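Review form for a predicted model. The reviewer records the input and the model, then writes brief findings.
Reviewer: anonymous (R2)
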Amino acid sequence: MEQCDVVIVGAGPTGLACGIELKRRGLHPILLDKGCVVNSLYNYPTNMVFFTTPELLEIGDIPMTSLNEKPVRGEALKYYRRVANHYGLDVRQYQRVTKVCGEDGAFVAHTTDADGEPHEFAAKKIIFATGYYDVPNLLRCPGEELPKVLHYYKEAHPYYDQDVLVIGAKNSAVIAALELWWTGARVTMVHRGDAIHQNVKYWLKPNIENRIKGADIPMHWRSSVQEIRPHSVVIATPDGVKEIKNDWVFAMTGYQPDTVFLEAHGIRFDPQTKRPKTNPDTLESDRQGMYLAGVIVAGMHTHEIFIENGRFHGKQIADAIATALK
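Model under review:
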């Protein structure tokens, strides 16, 4: 069993920021992630452009630069790798945390590595910085389990000359629809509402609206998917039920934090907002010695916390832990 002061579950930007601040206070953190470092960013679309500017993504007082005004995914991945190296953060990739046992001052995090081998990490404190990207919002319709149904979009090339349905009208759906169409897929969209979401990136919104207006990308407004079949999808529309030819479905319906995992560890959530119960000054949860950082603190209101402000949770939590361990 390995020993450390703090186990940080999640090695995204917020988890890295927590690790940096703890090291600055003379503590030894170990970061555990089920995937690679900044795994959520890695799973973003390959050609994604951030909405924000480079300085708002910075952690650990390390400057971030980009070729253009707004950084792209590849630049962000390179930056966070550089930060992890600079601070010598002890990041254990491909270590899925299965459970955390014990109590404040004497926790044990149990993990399984990429080979299925178990590991144990003893720590005085635990920080959960697990983000919200792990659990997709399901359609809950027949056929959603088919392998052609995808909840994450990476890149368009494999879907050239294919019939693709994109569900949703927020940023992820718009990016997927446009890139798929540009690459030669036959794209159709479905949305429960009657307009593209107002918060879609300003350089994408008129583009998708023009594609829809020109019928390059057919859009079914105020509609929903009723069933997904091997070679078609059934859609309920204001004009009645329609069945259209289909090879792939991208259900870009959003994500939510893994509250089931956290609730199993004694962390309570507001039933309406899904906000966890935390001390606003320290971000310690109801379970003493366990802290929450990043977007997970916002519950269902994921628009309230991004990398830009979630990164400051590291200092807040590190101050509290350093004081408690004096």
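Findings: The chain has two domains: 2-135+255-324, 138-251.
Further findings: The chain has a mean pLDDT of 92.
Recommendation: see findings above.
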